[in-house]
Amino acid sequence: MESATRKLWAKQDRHQGDRLRLFTAVAGVVDATRVLYPGSFVDIAPSFVFPSVTYVDVDRRAERFFADTDGAEEIIAANVTDDRPRSVTFLHQDYRDDLDLPEQSFDLLISLYAGFISEHCTRYLRIGGRLLVNSSHGDAAMASIDPRCELIAVITSRDDRYRVDATDLDTYLIPKKSRAITAELLHELGHGIAYTRSPFAYLFRRVH
After folding, report:
1. Separation of alpha carbons 42 and 109, rounded Å
2. pLDDT one digit per residue (tens) for the chain, 208 residues
3. Is the pTM of this model over 0.85?
């Protein structure tokens, strides 16, 4: 019988291999050893590519998923892209609360479909570290107005392939509606900003 862990991963990985392709593309341009993934649910795919990943989520299903260390390790072992040892840590917490993690200690912060992660968790990202963020819930817009963050690339998706593009960056993050983007506006809206160009995600570098 298929384990509950595998069933949860199968639902997460319903577009089979999609997350592996995404993080492989990111790893091609981001030299990251320590990765922080708040709001991860059971998306364990970063561990296929990066050696040390800390996952954070309040969902009890995620807690049970990561508590099954044998099941999680089997999924990782079936998908790893290199022979480096893997370290997986799970925090059953709300990322908006203080996490028991050293500030400026991660190389990559992941924000996908889980709210304003950059607002609360950029402090854990080292200077020069990277933020991978999409527009869901407005977090890409939040990062774009954060003086700690500098846009360095976009992630595009076509024909089930991801590509990192660092050209013509001044043509991105231009709102379709002319308005001042503020943190207050983004919290009020609770969703992303409509931009004239819409890549899958953005890569920012922490500069301050």
Report:
1. 16
2. 358 899 999 999 988 999 999 999 999 999 999 999 999 999 999 999 999 999 999 999 999 999 999 999 999 999 998 999 999 999 999 999 999 999 999 999 999 999 999 999 999 999 999 999 998 889 999 999 999 999 999 999 998 899 999 999 999 999 998 888 999 999 998 888 899 999 999 999 999 8
3. yes
Contact 125, 104 (CB under 8 A): yes
3-class SS letters over 89-109: EEECCCCCCCCCCCCCCEEEE
Find the angle CA(142)-CA(208)-CA(172) to the nearest 5 degrees: 40
Alpha-carbon distance of 36 to 31, in angstroms, equals: 14
**Which of 128, 129, 63 is CA-nearest to residue 93?**
63
The CB density around residue 124, as the number of other CB atoms within 10 Å, is 21
Domains of the chain: 4-206 (3.40.50.150)
- Would you call 120 exposed, middle or buried from its count of C-beta atoms within 10 A (0-12, 13-18, 19+)? middle
C-alpha distance from residue 87 to each of 53, 77, 90, 99 (Å): 6, 12, 10, 18
Task: In whole angstroms, give the CA distance from residue 75 to residue 81.
Answer: 12
Alpha carbons 201 and 133: distance in angstroms, whole number:
6
